[in-house]
Amino acid sequence: MTDPARAELEVDGVAMVRLLGPQDRLLSTLEQRFPDVTVLVRGNQVVLEGPDSDVRAAERLVRELIEMVKNGVDLGPTDVTAGASILERGQGSPAEVLSQAILTSRGKSIRPKTMGQKSYVDAIDHNTIVFGIGPAGTGKTYLAMAKAVQALQRKEVDRIILSRPAIEAGERLGFLPGTLNDKIDPYLRPLYDALNEMMDPELVPKLLAAGTVEVAPLAYMRGRTLNNAFVVLDEAQNTTPEQMKMFLTRLGFGTKMVVTGDITQVDLPTGASGLQLVSKILDGMDDIHFARLTSEDVVRHSLVGAIVDRYTAYDAQQQARRYTREQTDKKPAGPERPRRKR
């Protein structure tokens, strides 16, 4: 039996506190990622002991996390798991990939936290129309809005337009009290909340009043040409094919569009989603990119990713059963037996 490998890393006091995290959460995440490695913290030193290959992998990850702390990243458990995945796949340096902030607002940095999110953000930089498709918690809308605010601050666009379909506007909303704006506000409230996180809350009402930032239901897009704008369409799985075509053809000069949605959560009565159809029609076109995020890109509670995987597996089983039943129903019936004469 070979002797266990050992690695020692020196970390200064402030960096050590940020490296370990509250209640040593990051240390616990590291131990879960490498169950065969013993992690010891002694003063300003991190000691790793265990099988050679695991110790070397854990050492590379800890060095990357230390570098991220030096870059001002406020580490979370997701950074540990994402960093380990990037190293395992040979996708580069986690410190370089995950330290690039899109925005810094009130001391909080908004940045991609997984390789899938980084690819999504890069696609927004390099394409005119980007579709962000993935389950809840993958940061599709949040990162798109951060890129929109960044583009406005850099004067790359003159305005931001944020939109969502209000799928019940034709019926059930009519029974709610108040004006039309009062009725559609619950649908648009998540976009307002995100804006207030990314910008000075006192500035947001002024930008809304001046038309520099516009938050509107999808129905308000008809008949318009959107020039020099950053346009985000959220919850696009609830658009009909006709609405999706209408929205995309609003594209004007100097405009960038990001369309986000989760094709597994269609709330349309007919179930015919414009987001599902557009991926078949436009996939492969120049200057249009489809970024597909997965449960690995979920940055909410770790249970969210597990829940998404369970539902995905369940849906796949249901589809397989439906297919089997359909094939069985299509089989021709056997020859009818002749009846006996009485």
Descriptive tags:
6-stranded parallel sheet, 3-stranded antiparallel sheet, 342 residues, 11 strands, alpha/beta
Describe this structure in words.
The protein is of the alpha/beta class and 342 residues long. The protein contains 12 helices and 11 strands. The protein has helices at residues 13-20, 25-33, 52-70, 77-88, 94-97, 115-126, 140-153, 180-198, 203-210, 241-248, 274-282, 302-330; strands at 5-10, 38-42, 45-50, 103-105, 108-110, 129-133, 159-164, 213-217, 229-233, 256-261, 288-292. A 6-stranded parallel beta sheet has the order 8-7-9-10-6-11, with helices on both faces. It has a 3-stranded antiparallel beta sheet with strand order 1-3-2, with helices on one face. A two-stranded antiparallel sheet has the order 4-5. β9, α10 and β10 (256-261) form a beta-alpha-beta unit. The chain is globular. Mean pLDDT is 84; it is low at 168-173.
Largest beta sheet: strand ordering: 8-7-9-10-6-11
Major β-sheet profile: 6 strands, parallel
Radius of gyration: 25 Å
Fraction of residues in helices? 40-55%
Strand content: 15-25%
Can you count the beta strands? 11
Indicate the overall shape: globular
Low-confidence stretches: 168-173
User: On the 0-100 scale, what is the average pLDDT?
Assistant: 84
Find the structural class using helix and strand composition.
Answer: alpha/beta
Total of DSSP H or I helical runs spanning 4+ residues: 12
Q: End-to-end span in angstroms? A: 85 Å
**Helix and strand pattern:** EHHEEHHHEEHEHEHHEEHEHEH
Strands, helices and their partners?
Blueprint: E1 5-10, H1 13-20, H2 25-33, E2 38-42, E3 45-50, H3 52-70, H4 77-88, H5 94-97, E4 103-105, E5 108-110, H6 115-126, E6 129-133, H7 140-153, E7 159-164, H8 180-198, H9 203-210, E8 213-217, E9 229-233, H10 241-248, E10 256-261, H11 274-282, E11 288-292, H12 302-330
Parallel strand pairs: 6-10, 6-11, 7-8, 7-9, 9-10
Antiparallel strand pairs: 1-3, 2-3, 4-5
Helix pairs in contact: 1-3, 2-4, 3-4, 6-7, 7-8, 10-11
